[in-house]
Design a protein that fits this description.
Number of domains: 2
CATH superfamily of the largest domain: Aspartate/ornithine carbamoyltransferase
Helix content: 25-40%
CATH topology of the largest domain: Rossmann fold
Low-confidence stretches: none
Order of helices and strands: HEHEHEHEHEHEHEHHEHH
Strand content: 5-15%
Number of helices: 11
CATH class of the largest domain: Alpha Beta
CATH architecture of the largest domain: 3-Layer(aba) Sandwich
Strand order of the largest sheet: 2-1-3-4
Mean pLDDT: 93
Distance between the termini: 7 Å
Largest sheet: 4 strands, parallel
Radius of gyration: 19 Å
Length: about 290
C-alpha cells in the first residue's frame, strides 16, 4: 500500500489513523514494533517539520530512518529521479518517504518501488500527512471535525496543503472556505476568496505562506503590505468565532501572512500541529509497514 493522496485512504482507514495517532500523541509505546525495518527519506525540497517528524516517527516505532542528502547525492551529477528510485529500491528499504517539486512525481516513483511509498509533498498537488495531522489537531481541540468551519487563507494556488486539507476536512464533515490574494487563488475560484468573509465566524483559521519560490514574477507587495491586506492580524482574527483557533503548516513568515501576536496567541495550535506531526506519521508508517 502507498499513501499518495487523501484519495488513497478509505473512510475506515482515515478513522483508524486518527485514533492511532491520538494514542501515540498521548504517549502510547511502540518502540519495538518495527525493529529492524529501514525507512528512507528522500527530500528534493527543503523541509524541517515533515522531514524531522518522519525521522522521529520511524525511530519511535523502532525502525531506522536513513536520509539521503539530495544536495550531496548523485542527483547533482545528473542522475534522474527514476534512476535514483531504482538505486534505492535495490537496497531494499521497507518504506520510502519522498518529497519532490513535480506534481505526480511520487506516484511515478511508487510504480518503481517494491516497498510502500509515502507522499511528503509533490509539487502543488498534495501533502496527505499534513492534512491528517491537521484533522487530528482539530479533533483533539474540538472533540470533532464534523460541523466545523475552517478558513484556509493565503497562497491557495500553490498549496498542496490546502488541496489535501480541503479533500480530507470535507470528507470528515467540515466546511472549508478558501481565500487569498486574487493572483494566488486557483482558477476554479473566480470572484471568491475575500479574506474577511472567509474568516467571519470560522471555528479555525489556517494561514499559508506565499510560496515565492513557485511564482513566475514578483508579487509586488512592499514591506508590511501583504500583512495589512491579506494577513492574519488580531483585528481579522476577531472576526472569527470567539473560540476560533489558529493553524499554520509552517514555515511561518512572521509579519507577512501572520502577525506575531496571532502566531503566539493562546488559541494558536501551531506547535501542537508540529507535535501531532510525529504522532500522525507514526500512525501512517505503522499502517504501511504493517501492510
Amino acid at each position: 500500500m502507498d499513501l499518495l493522496s487523501i484519495d488513497s485512504l478509505s473512510d475506515e482507514q482515515i478513522a483508524a489513523l486518527l485514533d492511532a495517532a491520538d494514542q501515540f500523541a498521548a504517549g502510547a509505546s511502540a518502540s519495538d514494533r518495527h525493529e529492524g525495518r529501514i525507512v528512507f527519506n528522500l527530500f528534493y525540497e527543503n523541509s524541517t517539520r515533515t522531514l524531522m517528524s518522519f525521522a522521529a516517527a520511524a525511530a519511535r516505532l523502532g525502525a531506522t530512518p536513513l536520509t539521503l542528502p539530495v544536495e550531496q547525492s548523485s542527483v547533482k551529477k545528473g542522475e534522474t529521479l527514476a534512476d535514483t528510485a531504482l538505486t534505492l529500491n535495490a537496497m531494499r528499504p521497507d518504506a520510502l518517504v519522498l518529497r519532490h517539486g513535480a506534481n505526480g512525481s511520487v506516484a511515478a516513483v511508487a510504480e518503481l518501488m517494491d516497498c510502500p511509498v509515502l507522499n511528503a509533498g509533490d509539487g502543488t498537488n498534495e501533502h496527505p500527512t499534513q492534512a491528517l495531522l491537521d484533522a487530528l489537531t482539530l479533533r483533539q481541540h474540538f472533540g470533532r471535525v464534523e460541523g466545523l468551519t475552517v478558513a484556509i487563507c493565503g497562497d491557495i494556488r500553490h498549496s498542496r496543503v490546502a488541496r489535501s486539507n480541503r479533500k480530507l476536512l470535507e470528507r470528515l464533515g467540515a466546511t472549508v472556505r478558501l481565500a487569498g490574494p486574487p493572483s494566488l487563488l486557483p482558477d476554479e475560484l473566480p470572484g471568491r476568496g475575500e479574506i474577511g468573509a472567509a474568516i467571519g465566524g470560522a471555528d479555525a483559521v489556517m494561514m499559508l505562506r506565499v510560496q515565492r519560490e513557485r511564482l513566475h514574477g514578483e508579487l509586488g507587495d512592499g514591506p508590511g503590505e501583504y500583512l495589512a491586506r491579506y494577513g492574519l492580524t488580531a483585528e481579522r482574527l476577531a472576526r472569527a468565532a470567539p473560540h476560533a483557533v489558529v493553524l499554520h503548516p509552517g514555515p511561518l513568515n512572521r509579519g507577512v501572512e501572520i502577525a506575531d501576536e496571532v502566531a503566539d496567541h493562546p488559541r494558536s495550535l501551531i506547535l501542537r500541529q508540529v507535535a501531532n506531526g510525529v504522532a500522525m506519521r507514526m500512525a501512517v508508517l505503522d499502517l504501511l509497514l504493517g501492510a
